[in-house]
Give the backbone structure.
Amino acid sequence: MKPAEQANLLLRKALQDQAILVLLVDDKTISDDAVGFHAQQANVLIALLARIGICLPSGLNLLADLSPLATIYRYEDLPSDSELPRREWLAWIAMLRELVETEIESN
């Protein structure tokens, strides 16, 4: 698969997780770890775009903060005192989406 095709595929996959996140972000009947899983998935897919040559500004890496939501807390409960920044995740992913789409269009 050519880099541009791979970039578009990864973007489509990230946008699917972003769409799920938009639907769930304010629904308190859905757990933070379930919502966070989709935020992490969108984040990882967008971050993968950088690996295939799309340059994103440095410092835009939420991956370290979200990784436990796709690993540890995917199969374990979050600590009961956790309150996770769902809206911040959504804003961060929207910002990255805009950057990525701009980069793809310019290449």
Notes: The helical segments are 3-24, 32-51, 63-70, 72-75, 86-106. The CA atoms of residues 2 and 52 lie 10 Å apart. The chain has five helices and no strands.
